[in-house]
Amino acid sequence: METATIEITEGQLDEVFGALADRTRRAILARLAEGEASVNELCAPFAVSQPAISQHLKVLERAGLISRSRRGTARLSHLEAEPLREAVAWLGEYREYWEESYERLDELLGAIQEERSARTDQGRSSS
Amino acid sequence: MTELKVTAEPESHEVRTEREIDAPRDLVFRAFKEPELLAQWLGPRRYEMEIDTYEFRDGGRWRYIHKDDQGNTFGFHGVFHGDPSPNSMVQTFEFEGYPGHVSLDTVVLEDRGDKTLIRTGSVFQSVEDRDGMVQSGMADGMREGYDRLDELTAKLVANS
Q1: Which of its termini does chain B have fewer beta carbons within 10 Å around, N or C?
Q2: Is the ipTM of this complex over 0.90?
Q3: Which residues of B touch A3 (CB under 8 A)?
Q4: What topology is assigned to B13-159 in CATH?
Q5: How far apart (Å, rounded) are the C-alpha atoms in residues A57 and A67?
Q6: Min CA distance, A40 vs chain B (Å)?
Q7: pLDDT in tens, B87-136
Q8: Which CATH class is domain A11-80?
Q9: What Rg, from alpha-carbon coordinates, does chain B have?
Q10: Closest-CA residue to A112 (of B79, B29, B67, B10)
């Protein structure tokens, strides 16, 4: 179950999560997972202008999620998976531990409260 | 559904969490205070929880062990500081797999009528310690191999 919110206020992780907050940028990353691509190639599947894609690529580059190189006149983007892996692993594990603990706490306290109210009802009916 | 909020600022020594629980504060406090209750909720289900020592008082020691089904054990221990109360439960926390790296943890239970907000703060000795601890996932065995990007993006999409 994914119910957690993630809040990071500054720095590299902030950049990473900020970059990932956009659907188009996530789609770009998914495309780059298949291999490097030029801006034109990246424009093709999206109903977005080339300057808009370039803007998204800048954000991704700043977050360290992609790197860029030149081939002739084309600028190619490459996926850099490490910051992504780190960001997910870093918060994911901590969050998982506590999310699951608190789910169990919900269940436990729910059961205790039910038991309590059952006892109260019993007390009432027998008195 | 209540949400767990995790705040971890880069370059900071601290991790904070917030989570609302649908139960009154006295009951939530019991779940922290009584080891037989604590053992029923703290940690992921896949770990068996064994509480070795639990002296819930100023200067009291605590130690518990998570065991996975492969027979791996992950011990944690620390000391309570100040008389634990719903307003403040302060303790040191050390993962035995990473000895000498200690965090100072504070839990505050905020009364919200029928509900309770649990706030936690963990202050580590350094940013590296904090990241190391969080990254080790409280226990090495928790790490999953996030090798493939589609797994990663699926998770991130779900989180966003």
Answers
A1: N
A2: no
A3: 1-4
A4: Alpha-D-Glucose-1,6-Bisphosphate; Chain A, domain 4 (3.30.530)
A5: 9
A6: 23
A7: 999 999 998 877 888 999 999 999 999 889 999 999 999 887 777 666 55
A8: mainly alpha
A9: 16
A10: B29
